[in-house]
Design brief:
rod-shaped; about 70 residues
């Protein structure tokens, strides 16, 4: 019942001058675990990454849809 997102970031920079050549590298990994409030249908999970934005779409499972709550408003 958790959504786990893992990734790795790699950056390499290079500068050249008449007398100096410099190369910098940095690497890093990350992991995030997000608890989900309800059961998810694993077959209907989709993710897209565009312009630096990660969009994740999750669909409730059939059993989670049935266990909805009704609230009466007076």
């Amino acid at each position: 019942n958790n959504l786990i997102i893992k990734g790795e970031k790699k950056v390499e920079r290079e500068t050249k001058d008449e007398q100096v050549f410099r190369r910098e590298s940095s690497y890093g990994m990350f992991r995030r675990s997000i608890p989900l409030p309800t059961e998810v249908d694993e077959e209907k999970v989709a993710a897209t990454y565009k312009n630096g934005i990660l969009k994740i779409t999750l669909a409730k499972s059939a059993s989670a849809k049935k266990s909805g709550k009704k609230i009466t408003v007076h």
